[in-house]
């Protein structure tokens, strides 16, 4: 089964958007909750990043302007 160029473009755009959103979530959580690197609740950060990634992918299903 061959994947169309349009589908490849959508997957690439969705992946880029998802990674950016997850990075923004991590930056926000790490930057606001800590005094030092050892104070970071890494499990909480990873959990929030995973959730933001899932939500972003679901939002991308609605449509991606950059993949049109």
Description:
- The structure is a single chain.
- With 68 residues, the protein is mainly alpha-helical.
- It has one domain (5-63).
- It has two helices and no strands.
- Helix 1 (5-32) runs antiparallel to helix 2.
- The protein is elongated.
- The mean pLDDT is 89.
Distance between the termini: 22 Å
**Which regions are unreliable across 5 or more consecutive residues at pLDDT < 50?**
none
**Strands, count:** 0
Write down the domain tally.
1
Structural class: mainly alpha
> Average pLDDT across residues?
89
Instruction: Give the C-alpha Rg.
Output: 15 Å
Write the layout of secondary structure elements.
Blueprint: H1 5-32, H2 42-62
Please outline what is shown here.
With 68 residues, this protein is mostly helical.
Features:
68 residues, 2 helices, mainly alpha, single chain
């Amino acid at each position: 089964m061959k994947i169309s160029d349009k589908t490849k473009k959508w997957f690439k755009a969705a992946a880029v958007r998802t990674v950016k959103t997850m990075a923004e979530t991590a930056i926000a959580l790490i930057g606001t909750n800590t005094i030092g690197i050892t104070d970071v609740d890494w499990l909480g950060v990873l959990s929030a990043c995973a959730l933001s990634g899932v939500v972003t992918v679901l939002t991308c299903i609605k449509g991606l302007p950059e993949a049109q």
